[in-house]
Amino acid sequence: MQNKLTGLLVTLAAILATGCAAVVQPSYQQPPTVVNPGKVVYVSLSAAPDIKTDDEDYSNSMTEFKSELTQKFSESLPGTNLAFSPPPAGSNLGEQLNITVTDFNYVSGAGRFWGGIFAGHAKLQVHVVITDLKDGKQLDDASFGTSSSNGEGVFGATTSRQLDSVSSAIVRLFGGQVPSTSTQ
Fold this sequence. Notes:
This protein is an alpha/beta fold. Helices cover about 35% and strands about 25% of the residues. It is built from 4 helices and 6 strands; from the N terminus they run αββαββαββα. It has a 6-stranded mixed sheet with strand order 1-6-5-4-2-3, with helices on one face. α2 (about 55-75) runs parallel beside α4 (about 160-175).
């Protein structure tokens, strides 16, 4: 009997600790365009004026976001190099990826575990524009967002899960095959 109770408690703890993945809600202003892999992608990451960029949680989250993007690009699109810098003057090779964070609210895994819905809504909304440096043509314009809801309680998404989901959605714009981690 005690073994069954211990097993049940361990299972419950594992479920509470892992929770659910973030569900990304894409919004395309044009149909997604597959961008040719094997090039350099120059990434510009910025925030809307109302986002508190001097906040440590935001800063750490954007570092994690860059890491997620780099990992997913290298795994899904071998040969495509990310550069988190502006393209060199006069460069016409590769693509420019402009990512603007339009809504952000940080919720940690520990906060979600201990506070459930009282930890607040984790939010991440980004606007993505991909431009071909060769001719300046806009290849894609999309928005991605994810937000936890009250009904999810301790199972609600955390910022880390949202960063993972949104970075996967961005890589898919480039034709990358990233396994979906979201649940519906």
